Each structure stands twice: as structure tokens, then as C-alpha cells.
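A.,

Following up on our hallway conversation. C-alpha cells first:
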């Protein structure tokens, strides 16, 4: 009898599949042909979130949910508008789907996750180093510092191949005009290429900037460092920081992908 009761009634209606999509694409601004700033609005607030964390962003494609982690650039006060800074890869599956979306498209956004988060209680100056879209979580940390009128000094190194990729320069300059001290050091790694002919700022890779910075400001060896972006930059910066005397426990890193030519590491768990 018990067994029979647990069986579904023969004509019971099938349970509705929970809707996967929970957010709407409301804005996409192309910084270059392969870099874009996306904004999605969630149907309900994101919930618990710490600056530096990522969400999984997904789309149903050919009957399958294709999703990848993306660091949050900012979350508005309602907790529903999420900004993301995304690079389109030549053969990237999800990034090309995202580029083809129309505004109003429905997407899936998972809860905020990740351990690469700002330590708000650490009052020492911070060293923030990002390459390309690796700037995203560092922006979230600075946005949070601005919202709290936190006067801890920040040095921000943003490494890019082409100066046109220096998205957010004007937002960073706006923050600099406020109460949060930010020493902004953008650097362009391919100064001799034609696309960089209008650039007269610092040149070289992010790690070279780090080495120079630590020579000029030795007190920064006591600064916590937040590194985000490609694996080669993270390795090189970690080596430079350790060689200068930065404590291993003061180096926090978020790697966006496996080193080129190596088997990709499994993505962080997604919602
Ligand atoms: C915690 C975390 C946060 C991330 N945040 C961001 C973010 O804010 N913005 C962003 O653009 N990406 C971010 N990524 C990378 C992102 O999740 C995807 O890997 C990327 O968008 C490619 O997805 P795809 O489906 O287009 O490419 P796929 O079809 O998955 O193919 C990607 C291939 O390219 C490699 N790859 C992945 N990313 C890059 C890259 N940037 N440059 C060169 N090769 C790469 C992968 O290792 C893989 O071999 C993050 C990754 C992690 C782990």
C-alpha cells in the first residue's frame, strides 16, 4: 500500500520545469570589437555578495545550458543590476553567444561565489594588478571602497595590449577626484604596434611595472596584493612580489583561464 501511494497518479500533470533564465540583458557597450561591458538585471536581488566575487552567466543553447564564471564589476544598490566586463574569444563558445544577443534577451545568473575578495579590515595600502578583463573584480573592490569612503591608498596597475582596451579609465579618474586615493598606472604591452600609435603613457607588461613600483616604493612590500587575469601575468607578478619580500599570505590571485597550451583546469563550481 505504501509503495502504491508513493507512485505518481497515472494522469498527473508533469511538473513544470523550473525556469532557467532569471535575468535580462539591458545593456551592452562595446569597448572594442572584442571587449564589452554588459549589464543584466536580475528578477530578484542577487543576495550575499562580496566585492571581488564572480557569478556564473549562462544561456540555453541547443538544449544545453552553457555557462561560464564572470567577475562582477559592480552591483547596484537594489542588488539586481550586475555589470560585467567580458572579452570575446575567437572560438569562445559562450562569449560569442553573448555578443550575438539582443537587448532584452533572457539569461541565467547564478549566486555570487569565490574567495578572491577584498579584505575590508586590512588598513594597509593595497596593490591591485589586473590584465585585460582581470580589471573587473578590482573595480568592484574600488567601487566598494568608494561607497564606504575608505581612505586606504590603492595602487592600481592595469595591463593591456592596446590602449583602446583601457576601459574604465574615466570611471577610475572620477573616483580619483573623490576621497579614495588611487594611484592609477595603466600600461600598454605592445607599444610598437600601429594600433598604439596614439599612446604616450607607460609601456611594458604589468609585471615590469610591479618590479619598478617596488623599487621606487619599498614600503609597498608590506601591501596586500590582489592579482587577476591571465596565468602568465599572475605567475610573473607573484615571482616579482615574492622576490621583493612580499609575504606569500599577502598575495591573493584569481586566474581566468588555464595557461595557453595546457589542459584547461575545471571551472569553479557553478550554480
Ligand atoms: C573566476 C573566473 C572569473 C572570470 N571572469 C571573467 C571576466 O570578468 N571577464 C571575462 O571576459 N572572462 C572571465 N573569465 C573567463 C570566462 O569564464 C570564460 O572562460 C571566457 O569568457 C571564455 O568562455 P567561452 O565560452 O567564450 O570560451 P570557451 O569555449 O570556454 O573556450 C575558452 C578557451 O580559451 C581559454 N580562455 C578562457 N578565457 C580566456 C582569455 N581571457 N584569454 C585567452 N584564452 C582564454 C580557455 O582556457 C579555453 O581553452 C573568468 C574565469 C574565471 C575562472
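Then the amino acids I'd put at each of the 271 positions:
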Amino acid at each position: 500500500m505504501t509503495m502504491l501511494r508513493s507512485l505518481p497518479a497515472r494522469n498527473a500533470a508533469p511538473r513544470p520545469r523550473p525556469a532557467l533564465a532569471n535575468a535580462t540583458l539591458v545593456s551592452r557597450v562595446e569597448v572594442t570589437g572584442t571587449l564589452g561591458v554588459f549589464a543584466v538585471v536580475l528578477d530578484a536581488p542577487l543576495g550575499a555578495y562580496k566585492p571581488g566575487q564572480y557569478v556564473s552567466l549562462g544561456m540555453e543553447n541547443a538544449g544545453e545550458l552553457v555557462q561560464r564564471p564572470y567577475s562582477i564589476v559592480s552591483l547596484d544598490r537594489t542588488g539586481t543590476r550586475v555589470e560585467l566586463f567580458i572579452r570575446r574569444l575567437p572560438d569562445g563558445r559562450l562569449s560569442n553567444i553573448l555578443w550575438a544577443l539582443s537587448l532584452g534577451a533572457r539569461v541565467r545568473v547564478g549566486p555570487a561565489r569565490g574567495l578572491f575578495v577584498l579584505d575590508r579590515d586590512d588598513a594597509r595600502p593595497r596593490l591591485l594588478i589586473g590584465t585585460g578583463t582581470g580589471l573587473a573584480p578590482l573595480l568592484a573592490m574600488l567601487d566598494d571602497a568608494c561607497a564606504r569612503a575608505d581612505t586606504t591608498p590603492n595602487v592600481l596597475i592595469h595591463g593591456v595590449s592596446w590602449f583602446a582596451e583601457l576601459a574604465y579609465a574615466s570611471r577610475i579618474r572620477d573616483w580619483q577626484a573623490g576621497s579614495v586615493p588611487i594611484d592609477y598606472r595603466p600600461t600598454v604591452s605592445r607599444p610598437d604596434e600601429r594600433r598604439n600609435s596614439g599612446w604616450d603613457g607607460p609601456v611594458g607588461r604589468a609585471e615590469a611595472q610591479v618590479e619598478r613600483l617596488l623599487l621606487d616604493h619599498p614600503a609597498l612590500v608590506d601591501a596586500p596584493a590582489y592579482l587577476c587575469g591571465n596565468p602568465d601575468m599572475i605567475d610573473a607578478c607573484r615571482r616579482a612580489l615574492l622576490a621583493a619580500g612580499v609575504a606569500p599570505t599577502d598575495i591573493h590571485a584569481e586566474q581566468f583561464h588555464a595557461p595557453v597550451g595546457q589542459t584547461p583546469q575545471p571551472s569553479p563550481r557553478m550554480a
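The first strand starts at residue 23 and ends at 32. Curious whether your intuition agrees with the design.

B.
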